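Hi L.,

You mentioned the student needs an example of a multi-chain input paired with its predicted structure. This one should do, with 712 residues in total across all chains.
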Amino acid sequence: MSNSSSTASPEGARASEASALARFVRATEVDTRMLGMLGALLLIWVVFHLVSDSRFLTPRNLWNLSVQTSSVAIMSTGMVLIIVTRHIDLSVGSILGFVAMVMGVTQTALLPDMLGSDSAAIWVLTLAIGIVIGAFIGGIHGYVIAYLNVPAFIVTLGGLLIWRGAAWWVTSGQTVAPMNQTFRLMGGGPYGAIGAYWSWVVGAIACIGIIALNVMGRRNRKRFNFPLRPLWAELTLVVVGCLAVLGAVNVANSYPWPKGIVKRYAASNNIDVPDGGLFIAHGIAIPVLIAIGVGIIMTFIATRTRFGRYVFAMGGNPEAAELAGINTRWVTMKIFILMGALCAIAGAISTARLNASTNAQGTLDELLVIAAAVIGGTSLGGGIGTIVGAMIGAVVMQSLQSGMVLLGVDAPFQNVVVGIVLVVAVWLDGLYRRRSV
Amino acid sequence: MQTQSTTQSNTPSTSQTNDTSTVVSMQDCSISFGGIHAVDHASLDLHKGEVVALLGHNGAGKSTFIKLLSGAYKRDSGTIHIRGEEASINNPRDAKAYGIETIYQTLALADNVDTAANLYLGRELRTAWGTLDDVAMEARAREVMGRLNPRFERFKEPVKALSGGQRQSVAIARAILFNAQILIMDEPTAALGPQETAQVGELIKQLKADGISIFLISHDIEDVFDLADRVAVMKNGQMVGTAPVNAVTRDEVLGMIILGKCPPGATPGPGAVQS
Ligand SMILES: Nc1ncnc2c1ncn2[C@@H]1O[C@H](COP(=O)(O)OP(=O)(O)OP(=O)(O)O)[C@@H](O)[C@H]1O
Ligand SMILES: [Mg+2]
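Structure written out for the whole complex:
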């Protein structure tokens, strides 16, 4: 009797623990797949932190990680729509390279001649020209894919070669540098971040947004008599969300400007630097804000607009979408136009960060972008995927890469690891989906 | 044994009813896939408030024929008149613009989105800001599905998760949601249980009473005699003949389907076997 009860009790405890987690998941309606991905990300971070003598989870490293992720994260949001409609885009890295080259030449050679090199319009015009060219290139790809029925794999494989070659041709392979001062802000760096005060403002706005979304969602459910989440679950979600946002802001605000820059800044602004040095925080980097903005807009497009609805319906059953009267060819072309424009934005960020346009810029980015989307839960079978997932996938990929750089892993071996992770992630994803369907 | 010639009758098949009520007139329509003449010079009319049942063996060309009208396929030759005017139907959008709604044999549902999204696919309701009005769409979806399948409750799930009959109900609901003038139903009750089938029968009668014209493809001869005004039989892509249901017996219709033999009560088409 006593024997059996003593063996039963820990098991019983474990069972109730498991059911508590299950209850929590059910009550909060969080996506378990997303939860799993966040768990994996956390694990990667902790392991790197332990292995690297506590150099990974530092404000400095996390801040750099966020900046490095921006460009891939932006492109991955477009890749989600492409993969959801059962296409693929292998050319994003080359489009980025070509558009970056054009933007480099535009802001260093063309526009300064016309507007003077100090004109504030240079960065806007450069970015606008880049986006138009990117969208145009995407449009060409989309047209050939949708209206001439050439598989996306082939069209964008061709694009991979064509635009890389075209990037070389713009300057005969020469690197273009340095970039316009204002344009450079898009790439981060001490000046390309919004500082502690505005970072807290952004954080506060984000928290208000989280609360508002939950309240509105709850009110809507109530209005139409849909089942409500328990209040404690709702509160947990809000609190966790807000803490995550404020925690991230706090990290960005804990990373100070380098001493040299502080000195120069103090000198030019007539500030006395105290003995202990002056602490000026970076705050959230501008490229990160751009990426978050793109993510919000793309989520809106994917979930709240007709276009987004068509994208997912086409992915689920292309024939049904066509029979329902959707102009599937035009929708396909629009997806690729969007992808091209996103490549241009990513190209602007990467050019600004490097302070140069180089011939090899964006090389192999297509693989990171596709990996980010797929790790983020976009199904290669079509019809399934989320923007948020892809962006977190981008963080996972970038974390692996910068972690390995931090540990001094050789570049070729980094590729080996990234390749293996991609295959394993898709395999696990397949297992998960087969179990849950 | 088959002959191409049209035999006795040279009078147009529309002679029985007055022409102003002809809603759809498909004349001499053909389409082939590779070497297969899936539809071979087939003609058929549909009048206002009429139910025409289209019958034939498997692979006779029924689905392909109605797809020429629904815009899923583009015909190789032939003309289509809608309400007396020559219609150019090159894609499903064109057909919908003429008030033609179709329930496809394959259902043509997007598996990964929910019922409301499928019902409104291509014609989503939008809010004042131009965003999707999911709430309004779901409310309407509940209403319409309630008429067809009152026990249906799984509105939040992708239709992939639904049973075959539930999916069929969704496809039917989609066709009747938009005030169709002309309804094409390709085996709409194939997956339904007896009660749901009866409900669809009631629905067809009600739609007919509202003046809606219906092409009904079915293999169930009892259903056909219960619901249809006329039958049209196809064989090997050709039209065997058409007949008012009260002018032929069930056995005669079976003879048309199996042997291509046209009874006295029917108007023979190019596919009829000469006796
Ligand atoms: N897309 C296509 N490509 C090639 N052949 C086709 C296609 N669609 C139909 N066919 C052929 O056309 C013929 C008619 O097919 P259809 O689907 O119209 O038959 P059906 O009368 O609807 O048969 P069922 O009662 O089985 O539904 C068949 O021989 C079929 O193989
Ligand atoms: Mg058929």
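You could point out the following to them. Chain A has a mean pLDDT of 90. The interface with chain B takes residues 220, 224, 304-306, 309-310, 312-317, 319-327, 383-384, 437 of chain A (CB under 8 Å).

Best wishes,
N.
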